[in-house]
Specification:
single chain; two-stranded antiparallel ribbon; eight-stranded antiparallel beta sheet; alpha+beta; about 30% helix; 2 domains
């Protein structure tokens, strides 16, 4: 009987140790995820960004003119995408690659028949790519991607909700109603 009690105590002790190790591992992974998300919110910006959650890897802020801006950060590849809309069917995309460059210079890049320009920002710490993207036939903006001489990016916008941006556009277009109307 004493041997059975001893074996049960050992098994119970092992279960407790394993549970503590698993709990510690899960807690550490949650901590790393939280720290990674916090790093994304402050990555290469002076603006206050708000995370839209872990399902959408987006951040948002509102400009003083009411424009809603989305941002997506790729910490591993050191770039960020800034997204705005001025019309319902056109997405403005600006990608900033964190790299040293000569301030206020541009680098033309040709991809087949397509020509684009990467521009070094005023502080010499980033190349900027800008483009406009129209909605696809299915009503989405799809995947926004590019590869320009080693500076590559990809943003899958299929699951992004642009309703808030569309509402802001609608409100910007509001006109004052006169008594005659």
């Amino acid at each position: 009987m004493d041997i059975i009690k001893l074996i049960l105590k050992i098994i119970l002790g092992l279960i407790v140790v394993i549970a503590v190790l698993i709990g510690g591992g899960v807690g550490y992974e949650n901590y790393k995820t939280h720290m990674r998300e916090a790093a994304k919110l402050t990555y290469n910006t002076s603006y206050q960004w708000t995370s839209l959650g872990t399902y959408y890897p987006l951040q948002r802020r509102e400009r003083s003119d009411g424009t809603i801006v989305y941002r997506n950060v790729n910490l591993a590849k050191r770039y960020q995408g800034i997204f705005t809309k001025t019309t319902y069917d056109e997405l403005s995309v600006k990608v900033l690659f964190e790299t040293e460059c000569v301030p206020k210079t541009s680098v033309p890049y040709f991809a087949g028949a397509f020509e684009t320009t990467l521009v070094c920002n005023n502080t010499g710490d980033g190349l900027v790519f800008s483009a406009k993207k129209n909605r696809n036939e299915d009503g989405n903006f799809g995947t926004v991607r590019g590869d320009y001489g080693g500076f590559s990016f990809s943003f899958d916008t299929y699951l992004w909700d642009f309703t808030e941006m569309d509402k802001a556009i609608t409100l910007k277009n509001a006109k004052e109603v006169t008594e005659d109307e």
